[in-house]
């Protein structure tokens, strides 16, 4: 299932080339649009998106559960759909911008008795109050495309992750296929209305480009989505130890 290092580099390079210098870099959608969108979606989010995005969530949690249990920060925890699947020995903190979504997550934790959930907090993930290196793993699942300043979010995820820890990103990135890319660009003006940035370039991940990419896995069931596992360790250190 895991791609080789060479395959990872080729996938990364091809995708980034498709969003290269000739294309304008689009920032994330507006904060007000994000909050308004999830205020509308909260009552029906699980019904609309639960099944559609389920594979990516489970793949990310499966990868985390294969590592020694530690402290996990889930960015954009939403209604908490992933929370029942974590290793009971993990200690999970979930944060989200939407109070309405967090209310659903808290209900889920209480209903299932999820003692491994340490806290659920309302905050902007681009600037959190947590100290540096607070978590063994920092994960975001389908969050970059609904985040203003996604590069700033990734930088914060890096700050919060312990050296040598894991940064996991599940997201849909812009297609490299000409016809699909054209459709995405045509739909871009409607991004705020649907609360989703359809032009999330692979180059968004360049802010973490000096870190070691462990693997990039396609996520079946949601066109264009990928699971990216990055080790919070500079490439030079990894090379020196090999």
Can you describe this structure?
This protein is an alpha/beta fold and 242 residues long. It contains nine helices and seven strands; from the N terminus they run H-H-H-H-E-E-H-E-E-H-E-H-H-E-E-H. The chain has a seven-stranded mixed sheet with strand order 3-2-1-4-5-7-6. A hairpin with a 6-residue loop joins strand 6 (211-218) and strand 7 (225-234). The longest helix is centred in the first third of the chain and has 14 residues, at 5-18. It is globular.
Which features characterize this protein?
single chain, 242 residues, alpha/beta, seven-stranded mixed β-sheet, 9 helices, 36% helix, disordered N terminus
The computed structural class is alpha/beta
Report the strand count: 7
The portion of residues assigned to helices is 25-40%
The total count of helices amounts to: 9
Q: Strand share of the residues? A: 15-25%
N to C succession of SSEs: HHHHEEHEEHEHHEEH
> What general outline do the C-alpha atoms trace?
globular
Please give the alpha-carbon distance between the first and last residues.
Answer: 23 Å
Which spans of ≥5 residues are poorly predicted at pLDDT below 50? 1-27
Rg? 17 Å
Task: Give the strand order of the largest sheet, numbering strands 1, 2, ... along the chain.
Answer: 3-2-1-4-5-7-6
| Mean model confidence by pLDDT | 81
Biggest beta-sheet profile: 7 strands, mixed
């Amino acid at each position: 299932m895991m791609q080789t290092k060479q395959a990872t580099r080729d996938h990364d390079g091809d995708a980034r080339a498709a969003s290269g210098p000739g294309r304008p870099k689009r920032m994330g959608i507006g904060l007000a649009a994000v909050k308004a969108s999830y205020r509308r979606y909260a009552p029906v989010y699980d019904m609309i998106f639960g099944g559609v995005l389920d594979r990516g969530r489970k793949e990310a949690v499966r990868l985390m559960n294969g590592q020694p249990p530690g402290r996990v920060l889930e960015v954009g925890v939403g209604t908490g759909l992933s929370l029942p699947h974590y290793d009971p020995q993990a200690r999970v903190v979930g944060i989200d911008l939407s109070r309405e979504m967090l209310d659903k997550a808290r209900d889920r934790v209480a209903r299932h008795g999820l003692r491994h959930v340490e806290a659920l907090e309302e905050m902007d993930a681009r600037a959190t109050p947590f100290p540096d290196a607070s978590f063994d793993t920092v994960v975001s699942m389908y969050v970059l495309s609904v985040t203003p300043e996604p590069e700033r979010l990734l930088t914060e995820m890096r700050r919060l992750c312990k050296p040598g820890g894991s940064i996991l990103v599940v997201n849909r990135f812009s297609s490299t296929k000409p016809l699909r890319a054209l459709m995405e660009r045509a739909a871009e003006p409607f991004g705020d209305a649907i609360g989703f940035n359809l032009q999330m370039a692979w180059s968004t991940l360049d802010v973490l480009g000096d870190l070691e990419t462990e693997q990039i896995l396609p996520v079946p069931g949601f066109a264009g989505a990928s699971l990216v596992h990055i080790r919070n360790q500079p490439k030079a250190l990894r090379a020196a130890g090999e």
